[in-house]
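Quick check before the chapter quiz. The format below is the same one you will see on the exam, so make sure you can read both the input and the output lines.
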Amino acid sequence: MDRQHLTRQVAYWLYLHRGRAAGDPVSDWVAAERIVELVIAALGAATPEPETGEATVDLDPAGVALELLQNFVAEATRAEAAKRLGYKSASTVGRILRGQRQMSDDLIEKIQAAFAPRRRKAA
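Here is the expected output.
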């Protein structure tokens, strides 16, 4: 399956997820491209298991958390990210993005809780 086909499917899923409500197809497409990029980046670390031939994914939690934060800041602002993380100043977010603050387990969990896509509960 090629990237464009996968992006088209994800954009359509976003439309369905919105309840088939009219929206902005360009926003759906851009969001779908970002989702596909995240999946491809995550699978880029996949290595085949010698015994089974199946792929395993070795994700770096700090890298994933940093990417979530970067994606949010690209769409919003550092100030909004700081607010979601419970910081008074956007400078803390800037230090995280520049790699000047260590990605502790607590910080990784905080970023994931604030910016990871949430699954909708079945009705």
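If your answer matched, good. The chain has six helices and two strands.
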